[in-house]
Write a structure and sequence with these properties.
Elements: E1 8-11, H1 17-28, E2 32-37, H2 41-53, E3 57-62, H3 68-82, E4 87-90, H4 105-133, E5 137-142, H5 155-175, E6 180-187, H6 196-199, H7 202-211, H8 220-231, E7 241-245, H9 249-252
Parallel strand pairs: 1-2, 1-4, 2-3, 4-5, 5-6, 6-7
Length: about 260
Amino acid sequence: MGSLDGKSVVVTGGNSGIGKAIVLAMAAEGASVVVDWVAHEDQTEQLLQQVRDAGGKAVGVEADISKADDLHRMMQKAVDEFGRLDVLVNNAGIETRQSLLDTTEEDYDKVMAINMKSAFFASQAAAKRFIDQGDGGLILNISSVHEDWPMPGNIAYCVSKGGMRMLTRTAGVELGPHGVRMVNIAPGAVDTPINESTTSNKDKLGKLQDAIPLRKLAKPDDIADVVVFLASGRSSYMTSTTVVVDGGIMQGSVGL
């Protein structure tokens, strides 16, 4: 038996990078998973088939996660397909790697819509279903060490992750009496396509690895393993907080 047998899960941004690893790991532990797509339906379908070929359950739903109505529809998809909703993973995220002086209004709005607005309204939609079901629920946010650690030259991303931190702290307090928990997971440097400009450059990669006490970047599976642990029920007294998964980088270096 898997640690997530019988649980119904929604993962935003679940068809690539960390999200894909989360979907595969949760499905392998017995969860039934809903994954969204907008422009890459084929990529999502390949992932869903991979889950099914391994004996798991997963469905896709076309949804623009920057729109509250679509997020509510994602949660309803889990209920319609699997009978209930147990866990939401707010994983979707983008960055522009621009400074305060260079960020346009359009770029800022896009980052905030995908990173912060989607997490806010997906959490709202999930929490309402958890409360209606009457037996609690769990919201996990894939944040970043940059919810707390400045990253000059990537300011909109940092602002969005800082907002996610306060969302978790405040909503965790609001929802606690309903048995609904919210926890952030804050990765450090992860070997995903979003970091390809660093991982493909030997000098940049070496500098980054030297700054990490464990001397290596995380793999997406390293983050997915923490998600599975938090969703398994073995973290039932955790809420309104952040779990940092960074190889010690926040302690080992300043100002990367």
